[in-house]
Design brief:
The protein has 7 helices and 5 strands; from the N terminus they run αααβαββαββαα. By secondary structure, it is α+β, with helices and mostly antiparallel strands. Helix 2 packs antiparallel against helix 3, helix 4 crosses helix 5 and helix 6 crosses helix 7. The longest helix has 38 residues. The radius of gyration is 24 Å and the shape is globular. The protein starts with a helix and ends with a helix. 23% of the residues are buried.
Amino acid sequence: GMVLAGLLLLVVIVRYLLKLNYKPVKSIIELFGGNTKNNEYEEIYRSISNMLDENKHLMKDKNVHLSKFKHMILSEIIRGTSVETDIEKYGISFQSDCYYVLLFYLEDISELFADDVSVSDSERKEELRFIIENIFAELFDNLGIAVYTVSVDNYIVCLVNPKDKESREKILSVASDGTDFINREFAINLTYVISDVAYGLQNVADAYFQAADAIANKLLLGINESISVSEIYQLTEKSNNAILNMHDDQRLIGNIQ
């Protein structure tokens, strides 16, 4: 309710601010009195402005670098290609040895902000990651559940880290409510699956590939409702058996003819 509405407002505001051509030097000079050409403090204003502007760019570059490196480490953990063990130095910490992979997929990325033709598909995907990251960070944080969100392959992945495996029903509820909210407010058709629990970072990759296989089968079968990975596998097996039985029947008919 109120939390999700507040998150939507935050997403809209931040997206708007990111698109502004913000010029801190001009803002500072205006703050100190507008036109400084004939002002005896012009050099002071310029020094302060240049210093703050340079600091802003340095901090931005540092944060971007750290964010990209953190994203890379998390992506490697999820895909099972990481050999890094000292992850806390990258600002990554987990509260238990229990993990779930919440995997999102948007088949047609052009659905997001469809009225904005100036946005590329890669920018839309980054904005989708930003939306998912902020909304689910807030929702899971309210339950004391840690979460990291990254782009992996063609998916957006939330690596969910509850205090224990008993939180599964809460995670399912948050996933359903959050996805419904995003689909409704942004007029898209985002789909998701949640893996079985994985114990230990070394098993997270298995959970990821399990979820990736499940979402492919979910899309293939045209399943829209929220169901578990095991239920998807059961339906897939029934579907495959039905297809095999149909082929067997066709072969039998062909032999008779």
